[in-house]
DNA sequence: GAGCACTGC
C-alpha cells in the first residue's frame, strides 16, 4: 500500500517527502509524484482549498489557513508541544466540523494532565516518530489505555487521511486499540469519546462481538476486542484499514493477543507505514522488546498506594480454613477498610461465605464493642449480574454511633484479579491458588486444575489493596515459597489450550508453516499435530496441510471446528435450522440451573425437556419450548425461572444463533428442516452431529454402563445429568470432563453404520482395535454384499 | 449420581 521504503524504522515519509521536493517542483503537474498514499489528502478544515494547496512543501498542513488548529502538523513528526497546544487550544480539530471545546472537555483535560502518562508525552512522541514498533510499560493508573491512542491520533491525524476502501467508501485510516475483554473495550471507548469531546460511535467507537459502534466514514479511533481484530485479519491479511495498532494488556497473553503479535510482526515488514505499540503492565517488558526486534521501551509509572505484604511463618495445610481465619483476624484487629479474598471456585466461595458470616455474627454478638457488622459478598462469573452488583454496595453502617465500623468482605475468583475492580478494598487475602486450564494433548483433553499462581498474579492481587489508599496483603504461604515455588509469569494461554481452532485461524490468516511461525512462546509440537490431525479428519485441511474450501468456510464461523463442520453439512441432512439451534446451545454456558437447595425440583423440571435419544436433542427441546412460551422479555424471565433454566444463557443462545444464521446465509447454506412428522426428523439431526463429532465417540465396554473412547481407549461414564435413557452401543459426546471420574457430557446415541458411512477413513477397520474393529468389519462386509453402498458422501 | 477459573469470535 504505502511506498516501498525499506528503512529500518519503516516510516520515513516526512524525510522522504522533503527529499522529493528537492528533486522536483511541488507543482500540481500530473507527472509529479504527489504526496505518498498515506499522506493527508482529505482535511475537512481545508476543504475550501484545492488539495494541492492544503499542505506546504514539507507536507505540513498549510499554516496560512490560520483557523486550522492542526496547521503546521506533519503526520508522525508531531511533537508533544504541538499536541499540547491543540489540546489546550480553543477549537476541537477532531470534531466532524471544527467547533469550540465544551466546558466538560476542559474539566476532563485538567484531570488528564495529572495522569503519569501525560508527563511523558514528549518522550512518547520522540519514540513514536522514530520507530515503527514500540513497547510500553504502564502500571495501573498510568492512564495508558485512554491517553496513548489519543496521542497517536494527534500524530497520525487519521481523520485527515481518508482513503477509499474496497467498498468504495471514503474512510479514515484508523487507529485500533485492542482489549482482551468486551466491557473494557466498551467503557474505555465511551470515556475517550468524552475526553476528546466527540460522539461515541462517530469519531471514536468500539467493535465487539454482537455490537459495532463505529461509523465507516468517520470513526478514526476504534477500541475493540483482540479476537475481533483477529477476525478482521482473516479477510485482510495486512490490516490495511489501520494506520496504527495498539495491543493493550499484552501481558495477559490471551490466545488472540499472542496470535496477533506473531501476525503483526510479519505485517509490519510488509507495511512500512503501519505503526505498532505493544502495551503491558510491568515485568516482562524485556521479553516483548526482544521479540519485537529490540523495540524501544517507554516506561510510565503507575499511580497506586503502597501495599504492605505479610507471609505466614509456616506453610498452611488448609488454605480455605486459613483464609477464613485471616478474614476474622483482620476484622478484629485492623482499621476500617474492606477485604478481598481470592479463592478458586463457586463451591469453595459459597462455603467460605457461609462460614465467615456465621463466625462474624457470633463475634459481633458477643463483642459488640470490638467487632462491627460484616457483610460477606460472593463473586464469580456465573453469578447473575444483579448479584454481582452487590460487590459495589457500601460496607454496613456501624451499629452504635461510637461502635466499631462495619466492613465488607468480597470472596472472589480470579475475576477480581483482572476483569472487575472494586473500590475501597484495603486488605487482600491471597491463598496463592487459582483454577487454571491445562491441555493434555496425549488424551486430547482440556481440564481445570487448582494450581499455584504466578508471582505476577500474586502482585496483581496485592495491588488490588492499594487502589484508594495504602493497604495490606496477607499471603497464606511462606516467603520462602514465594521466592522458590512460584513461577514468574503464568503460562500463556497458547501453551495450555487445544489449538484446533487456532490452527484453523492461522491458516486462514495466510500463515503457511504453523510450526515455524514466530510465536512468542511456541506451543508443543504435539499440540499442533493434534490440531492438524483433527482438521484433516474433518476435511478442513487436505493431506498436504492446506486449507480446503470447506476449511475456508469453517474458519468463518465463530465455533470450534467440529461444530462448524456439523453446521456446514447440516443442509445436506435437511436439518440446518435445528443444527443451528444445537450449535448455539452448545456455545453458551449451561442453560440448566440447579440450586443446591432445590436439586430435585430442578431435575424434575429438566425431565420435562428430556429426549431419550440424547442430550443434544434435549437442548433442541429446551430452545423450542423457550421460543414457544416466551413471546416477550417479561414472560421469558418468569418462564425460565419456573423451569429452572438460565434466562441469561438462553438469550445468549438466541444471539449466537442469529449470528451463525447470518454466516450461513453469507455462504448460501440453506436453512431447512425435515418435517417434524417425518420419521427421519431426529435421525437426520443425529447424523449431522455425527459428521462433526465422529472423533468423539465412545463404545460400550464392561458392565454398569461404562464406555471406552474409540481413539484413546479412556474408560468413561456418561455424566449423571444425561437424559439418555438407555445405554446404546455407541454414543457421541460433546465434552470429556475430568473430575472425580472421567465423564462424557452431553451425549447422544449414534449408529456404527453412520460412523463408517460419514467417516470411512477414520473408522476403517484396519485403524480400529478389538470389538469396534469387529463391528466395523462386519458392517463393511454386509455393505459389500448388499446393493449400492453409501448413500451420502 | 454431578460442577462452570476466566475470556473471546
TrEMBL record:
Q: PROSITE patterns under this entry?
A: DEAH_ATP_HELICASE, HELICASE_ATP_BIND_1, HELICASE_CTER
Ranges where the Helicase ATP-binding domain occurs = 125-301
Q: Which InterPro entries match?
A: DEAD-box_helicase_OB_fold (IPR011709), DEAD/DEAH_box_helicase_dom (IPR011545), DHX15_DEXHc (IPR044756), DNA/RNA_helicase_DEAH_CS (IPR002464), HA2_WH (IPR048333), Helicase-assoc_dom (IPR007502), Helicase_ATP-bd (IPR014001), Helicase_C-like (IPR001650)
- A GO CC term? post-mRNA release spliceosomal complex
Cross-referenced SMART domains: DEXDc, HA2, HELICc
Q: Which reaction does it catalyse?
A: ATP + H2O = ADP + phosphate + H(+)
- Using the record's annotation, list all stretches that form the Helicase C-terminal domain: 323-510
Biased composition of type Low complexity is found at 57-67
Stretches with biased composition (Basic and acidic residues): 8-22
Extract one GO molecular function annotation from the record.
RNA helicase activity
Q: Which GO terms describe its biological process?
A: spliceosomal complex disassembly
UniProt keyword annotations, A-Z: ATP-binding, Helicase, Hydrolase, mRNA processing, mRNA splicing, Nucleotide-binding
EC numbers for this chain? 3.6.4.13
Stretches the record annotates as Disordered: 1-73
Q: What does this protein do?
A: Pre-mRNA processing factor involved in disassembly of spliceosomes after the release of mature mRNA.
Q: Which PANTHER family match?
A: ATP-DEPENDENT RNA HELICASE, ATP-DEPENDENT RNA HELICASE DHX15 HOMOLOG
Protein name from the UniProt record: RNA helicase
